[in-house]
Each structure stands twice: as C-alpha cells, then as structure tokens.
Amino acid sequence: MAELLRRLFNIRPSELPVFGAFFASYFIIGVQFSLGLTVSETLFLAEVGPSFLPYMYIFNAVFIIAASALYTRYTDKLSISGMLVAVLLIFVGLIVAVRLLIGIDLRVMAFPIAIPLLHTLNVLFTNMVPNNFRAHYGLYMDVLQSKRLVPLILTGGRYGGIVGGLLVPILLPLLGSVPNLLFIWAFAILFSVAAVFYIDIRLRDHRIEAEGAPVRRKGAKKTAAPREGNLALARTNRYVAAFALFAFIAVVLRTFQDFQYSIVFREAFPDRRDLATFFAYFTAIGNTIAILIQTFITPRLIRRLGLGTANLIYPLTSLIGLGAMAIFPAFLPAVFLRFNNRNLQESIRNIINALLYNAVPTRIRGRLGAFVAGQVVAFASILSGVFLLIINPAGFALFPLSLRAVALFSLVVGAAY
C-alpha cells in the first residue's frame, strides 16, 4: 500500500501517518460543512425567505469583521492546537444553543430570530475552521511537503461533503425534522476535537517545530498594517491592486448568483424537507463532479492556458449561467448557477487564485491576505447587500427589478471581471 501511494501520489512512507491523520480530519470537517450548509440554507429559505438575504450579506460581513478582531486578540494567548479546539467547542455550544432557540420558536414581531443566527453561524464556521486547520497542519509539514500533500489532504473535505450530503436523506426520516440535524452537526464537530488530540499525542514525534502558547514581550509593538497602509500598497503595487479588484468583483458576482438561485429554489421546493433533500443530493453530486474537475481538468487547463487565461474560466461560466437565467429564469439555470458558485469556483477559481497569490512577494503576502479577506471581501459583500436591497425582486425595494433584470445586471458585473 505504501509503495502504491508513493507511485500514485508521491507520498513517502514516513509521511503516511501525518497524511492519513490530516486527510481523515479534513474528511470529518467536510461532513460538517455539508451538514451545516444544508441545514442553514434550508431553514433560512423555508422560514425567512430569500427576500431577507441582502440583509444577511451585510450582517454576515460586519459580524465576520468583528469576530476576526476578537479572534486576533486571543491568538497570542493560546497555542495553535488549543485555539483550534477552543474554536470547535465554541461552535458546538453555539449550534446547540441555536437548536434550542429554534425549539422554543423565539420570535420578534413574528420574525424567527434563531434562523438568521444559524445562517451567520454557518458562514463563520466555514471561514474560521479551515484557517485554523491550515495552521494546525503547518506544525507537521514543511513548505515542500505542503505543496505535495495539502492538495491531496483537502480532497478529503470533498469526500466528506459527499458523505454528508448522502447522510441527510437517510437521517431526516430518523430524526423527524430538519432542525434536529443540528445535533448531528455538533456531534460531528466533537470528532474533530478528538482528531486534534489524537494527532498531537500520537504524532508528536512528527512535528517539525515545537509549539507553545505565544508570549508577547512587554513593550512589543503591534506590526499589523493599518488600513491606510493596505490602501497605499494597492495604489503603489499594480499586482496587489489587480488582485484586490478581481476579488471584489468575484464576491459581488458570487453574491448576485447566490441571491438569484435562492429565489428559484424557494419557489421550487416549498416543503423544507424536500428542500433539504435537494440541497443534500446537490452537495453530494456537486462534490463528486468537483473532485473529477480538480483532479483531471484544472491542472491541464493551467498548463495549456496559463494562469492569466485560466483565471477567466469562472467569469465565463458565470456569464453562461447568468445569460441562461436572463433568458429563462427557472430551475435548470438556477441549478447551473449554484454548481458554478459552489463547485466550479472551488475546483477551478480557488486553485488558480491560490497560485496567483503565491506570485506575490513574501514580504507583502500576509498583508495582501489580510487586506483582501478583512476589507475587500467584506466591503464587496456589504455593497452587494445594499444594492440588492434597492432592486430586490423578492420583497420591498426602492427600485424593484424582475429576476430576469437582476440576471442582466449581473451579466454586466461578470463582463467587468
């Protein structure tokens, strides 16, 4: 088996314990992503409706900025493993708390409070857990090992997404309702906590560096770049400016697509269990196709076209889906838009984006990542939410547009990319 893995995937025998442990760990996280997305998306569209999504785009962006600031305060007080465990356990508590709030049906002016909180919780989970996971495997792999092993490890999340999607239709009849799937999500996170302890105890000898809680020296000054410094960097460095601009347009494009297919799916599946089953099967099938694309198509596209040209694939597929939605705003174009938004983006654009990111000089790479994630993406989400509130075809709006008109406007955004 070791020889087969070495030949097929260039995994050395001494690396098998670390690879196997982190592959299994991210497989479990993939199951959690699938369950969290299915439950949060289903309950939000069924109980709140897509007309409230623009508010969520704004609220989620603001909340993530606040949560990131709070998270940064504690990174100097906990070890990497300790921070990962703490984050996971906090999410377990929050998920159970949201489930209890759903159970008592807490409402303000007939509005269900728990469901939007669950939507934000899922967005926060999918942002924070991968970042902590990357920091954790960095303790066990050097740069060269990461280049070989991390792409394979991350496919574990895809396989976990497939399993999680297939579990939902099986568990729903047993659990009786969609909200009860939250208990399974929380229980699955406990497996990730156990995985952290297993890795740190059983694979202690495989660490490439010792770990302890960081200690801040007295009088040490913070080196984080201020907001003005990041903007000045974008003005003086064309590559950074282009990277930030592409990220901004991509977020706007992704948000508009999410809004459009959510309206269609809410109308197509009025029953929450039918909607949950649809999302679950979509996740399983979409992840299966994404694995094949990521393994066999994306590397060939990059080699043949180069990064610059290959970077246009996602906006081109977006234009195809939006064009179809503009002509025929119905179920099949919505399915393609969701596949494009969830699966093609992850299996093509995200990989190309990571390679483009590596082309940034090391001295400014960290600043660029913080600038894009903390400011550009957040601002793009807020702006998208505000604009959708103005043209919202699914609720009250200042200048309401039809779904077809929203698709046409989205085409303009895609062309700008």
How would you describe what is shown here?
By secondary structure, the chain is mainly α. Helices cover 80% and strands 1% of the residues. A two-stranded antiparallel sheet has the order 1-2. Strand 1 (107-108) and strand 2 form a beta hairpin. Residues 215-228 have low confidence and may be disordered.
Total DSSP helices: 14
Major beta sheet, strand line-up:
1-2
Which percent range describes the beta-strand content? under 5%
Q: Class by helix and strand content? A: mainly alpha
- Rg, rounded, reads 22 Å
Short description:
This protein has 417 residues and is mainly α.
Labels describing this entry:
417 residues, mainly alpha, two-stranded antiparallel sheet, 14 helices
List the helices and strands and how they pair.
Blueprint: H1 2-9, H2 16-48, H3 53-74, H4 80-104, E1 107-108, E2 111-112, H5 114-137, H6 143-175, H7 181-202, H8 227-236, H9 238-268, H10 272-310, H11 313-327, H12 331-358, H13 362-391, H14 403-416
Antiparallel strand pairs: 1-2
Helix pairs in contact: 2-5, 2-6, 2-7, 2-10, 3-5, 3-13, 4-5, 4-7, 6-10, 8-9, 9-12, 9-13, 9-14, 10-12, 11-12, 11-14
